[in-house]
Amino acid sequence: MKKYIKFTVGGFFYGYKTLEIFINGENVTYKILRNGLLNVDTKISHEVKISADWIKKLDALNIFEWKEHYFSEILDGTQWELTFKDGKNIYRGGGSNAFPEDWEKFLDLLDEIAPELEFIHRERLEKIIFDFSRESQIGYTVFETLTLNRREKILTLTKENQQIRAEHIYCIAPKQESIFDTCQNFFDNLKIEENPPDYPLQIKIEVLRHDGTIETVNSAYGEFFLVGLAGFIKEIKNIVSDLTAEIFSPTPAEIIPRQGKYIFCKVQFKGSYKHYTYQTDDETLAVGDIVDVPVGKNNEIVQARLVEIGYFDEYEAPFPVDRIKKIIGKHIVSEWENY
To answer: What sections of the chain are H helices per DSSP?
Structure first.
């Protein structure tokens, strides 16, 4: 059966792409009517062959069940229009910054027909996996895995030590999808300064791009080693603001002077993933340090691991500065035998 597709997609700032496709069995003729900001010669036709599998994938999209209009209140962005004919059936629809469920599968199929248009950029990041590890000072390892999946729009955080394993899954809302652009920019411009193998905080990053290529980065974990890391992690934390994890506190490039700010720390007690907030005046404390903290009405001294550090003005402090308990100081590691 013959099929016909006319598809336009684009935006005000980067122009529009228009593709016209005629399908007759496995024979395809297509024309590029518009490419980016430039018009092209509409008289040029290209002929290609497609497989029966390609047709099955197109039919599986159920385009005739798509809505006529898809709309989002987000300004600018991407607009699109589609005319699809299959025999006597015709679909005409479009949208503005909103898309059918199988939108990217549809773009993938068009890229197979006219790869020169790159409806999805070949180097677009599809999946990023951060495998974080910290060697404890008494012989075991803390593991955390952060995964960003662009196609499924899911963020997953897994935390594990010798006693506990926990997994948290977040669906990324449309207003949060800018995190993928931030991620793309971070990895496209990533500079790795050095990788001391004996550094206690290590990260393995696996990056899967749209063309199927996989890149692997092994590095010490901190802003000094991965330039731009702190800003990227800050945007991740905005999505999972209710969670704490060591991976959310990469070592800064250098110790940040207080400059009148209050230092708040989150600590983790033995055998628990729940975190508690304390204040400190000690600028030398770092994520991973074992500290003594007062607990309960009697202020019993208990050991905990420092998992996050933040600098705040008094008005933005997470707790009243005159009511928060303070860290006593670093603990002598030799006495922390069973953590």
So the answer is: 52-60, 103-113, 178-188, 229-239
Strands (E), the chain: 2-11, 15-24, 27-35, 38-39, 46-49, 69-71, 79-86, 89-96, 125-135, 141-149, 154-160, 165-171, 201-209, 214-220, 262-269, 275-280, 290-295, 300-312, 329-330
Q: How many domains does the chain have?
A: 3
Q: SS3 of 104, please?
A: helix
Closest CA to 107 of 95, 94, 121, 93: 121
Q: Tell me how crowded residue 16 is: count the other CB atoms within 10 A of its CB.
A: 18
pLDDT tens digits, 165-194: 889 999 998 788 889 988 999 998 887 777
What value does the mean pLDDT of the chain take? Answer: 85
Residue 258 pLDDT > 60, yes or no? no
Among 87, 117, 147, where does a domain finish? 117
d(Cα 228, Cα 232) in Å, to the nearest integer? 7
